[in-house]
Design goal:
Helix content is 37%, strand content 23%. The protein is an alpha/beta fold and 398 residues long.
C-alpha cells in the first residue's frame, strides 16, 4: 500500500500541516489511514514574507521569486520531519502532494495581455521538494481546473465525497480554515451530485483582528476567550453582512483578496470611530463570521436539503464562541467532527492533498465540475519526478 505525504498551508499562513497517509485502492474503493500528522509553524519572518507577497501593493517580483524557493525548502523539511515522526526514512515514502501557499486567487475572468483569464498562484516550488527529499512530488493543483473554465476551488470535494459519502444521510463537510468552505454530499450521491463553495471568511478576520489588537503577541482567539468576554455590535454585523460575495450564487470561491488586509483595515477603522472596545471587536467579527456561515446554509443548502448532518473540520472548529453561534443558528441540525471518522479536524486538509496527489498519478480526474464550475473533469496537478528511481507509478511494489 503506498505511503503518501500531504502538505498544506492555508490562507491563515500560520504554518505547514503535514500528514503521512497509508492509501489502499483508489477512487471509490480507496481507503486512507493517517500514520502521522504534525504542524510546523512558520517563523515570524516567513509569515510576514507571505503576507507581503499576498499584498499587491507590497508583493514585488523578486520577493515572489525567492519566496517560492524558500517555501519549497520549508515544505521539504516538513515532509522529512513527518516521515521521521512516523519512524520512517524518506526511502519508504512513495509520493508527496503539496498544495503550496496561496498568495493570490483570482478566479473571476479578467483581461490580461489580450486574453480573458482566471488565475491562482501557489508558492512552494515542487522541484525543491522533490530534490531535497528524492520523492516524486505533485503540486500546483488549481491551474488545470481554471484552464477548464472552473474557479480552481474548492479542491476538497472529491476527497470529501470518498471519505464521508453515505447511502442514508445527506452530509455537509464544513471546513473552517482561514476561509470557510462547505461540501454538500447528498445521500447515495454520485460525484455529479456534489456541490461545494466557499461561504466566506472562516478564521481569517478573527485571527487578523486579534493579531492587530495584541500587537502580534496573540495569533488567534484562544478558546474564543475574547469573543466570549465581549459583546457583538449588532448594527456593524448587519452592515458587514451586506458584502456582495455572500449573496453570490455558487460556484464561488474567495480568499484574502476579499477578506484580508484591506477588509480588516476598513473594519478596524470603523470600529475605532464607533468606540468599539477590543474584546467587543473580536466578538463582532466572530458574530459576523458565524452569521455568514448560517446565511450560506439557509440560502444555498437547506432549501434543497433541510435535514443534513454537518461534519466539522479545520482550526475554526476549536473556537467555542464561533461554534456555539453556528450550532445555535442551525439548530436542530446534527453536528459531528471528522475525528468521528478517524481523521482529526486538523489533519484533514493535509490528508486531502495526499489523496489528490495519489489520484493524479493513478490518472483520475479529481476536480468536481459542479463545485468549481469547470466544463469537464480533469486530472489536477503537475508531477515532478524524484531522483529515487522514478519509473512512473507505482514507483515500487506496495
Amino acid at each position: 500500500m503506498p505511503l503518501v505525504i500531504g502538505l498544506m498551508s492555508g490562507t491563515s499562513a500560520d504554518g505547514i500541516d503535514a500528514a503521512l497517509v497509508h492509501i489502499e485502492g483508489s477512487a471509490q474503493a480507496m481507503q486512507a489511514q493517517v500514520r502521522a500528522f504534525q504542524t510546523y509553524p512558520f517563523s515570524a519572518e516567513m509569515r510576514e514574507a507571505i503576507l507581503q507577497a499576498s499584498d499587491p501593493s507590497r508583493g514585488t517580483v523578486d520577493l515572489l521569486c525567492r519566496l517560492n524557493v524558500a517555501l519549497g525548502e520549508a515544505f521539504a523539511r516538513a515532509a522529512s520531519d513527518v516521515a521521521s515522526h512516523a519512524g520512517l526514512s524518506l526511502d519508504a515514502i512513495d509520493l508527496i502532494g503539496s498544495h503550496g501557499q496561496t498568495v493570490q486567487h483570482l478566479p473571476q475572468p479578467a483581461s490580461c495581455g489580450g486574453y480573458s483569464v482566471r488565475a491562482s498562484l501557489q508558492l512552494g516550488e515542487p522541484s525543491v521538494i522533490a530534490e531535497r527529499t528524492g520523492v516524486s512530488t505533485v503540486a500546483d493543483f488549481r491551474p488545470r481546473d481554471l484552464a477548464a473554465g472552473g474557479e480552481g476551488a474548492p479542491l476538497a470535494p472529491y476527497v470529501h465525497y470518498l471519505l464521508f459519502g453515505d447511502v442514508a444521510r445527506t452530509r455537509v463537510v464544513h471546513n473552517i480554515g482561514g476561509i470557510s468552505n462547505v461540501t454538500v454530499i447528498p445521500a447515495r450521491a454520485t460525484l455529479a451530485d456534489i456541490y461545494a463553495f466557499d461561504t466566506g471568511p472562516g478564521n481569517m478576520i478573527i485571527d487578523g483582528s486579534v493579531r492587530r489588537l495584541s500587537g502580534g503577541q496573540e495569533a488567534y482567539d484562544r478558546d474564543g476567550q475574547r469573543a466570549l468576554r465581549g459583546q457583538a455590535h449588532g448594527a456593524l454585523v448587519e452592515d458587514l453582512l451586506g458584502h456582495p460575495y455572500l449573496t453570490r450564487t455558487p460556484p464561488k470561491s474567495t480568499g484574502r483578496e476579499l477578506f484580508g488586509e484591506v477588509f480588516l483595515n476598513d473594519l478596524c477603522a470603523r470600529a475605532s470611530q464607533m468606540g468599539i472596545s477590543d474584546d467587543d471587536l473580536v466578538a463582532t467579527v466572530t458574530a459576523f463570521t458565524a452569521a455568514t456561515m448560517i446565511d450560506a446554509y439557509r440560502r444555498f443548502i437547506l432549501p434543497r436539503y433541510p435535514l443534513v448532518e454537518i461534519v466539522l473540520c479545520g482550526g475554526g472548529s476549536h473556537n467555542p464562541a464561533l461554534m456555539r453561534q453556528v450550532q445555535e443558528g442551525l439548530s436542530p441540525l446534527r453536528f459531528r467532527t471528522s475525528d468521528a471518522f478517524g481523521i482529526s479536524v486538523d489533519a484533514l486538509e493535509a490528508v486531502i492533498f495526499a489523496v489528490l496527489a495519489y489520484e493524479t498519478v493513478c490518472g483520475h480526474a479529481t476536480n468536481v465540475p459542479t463545485a468549481t464550475g469547470a466544463q469537464r473533469g480533469v486530472i489536477l496537478g503537475k508531477v515532478v519526478p524524484g531522483w529515487k528511481g522514478w519509473t512512473g507509478w507505482p514507483s515500487r511494489s506496495a
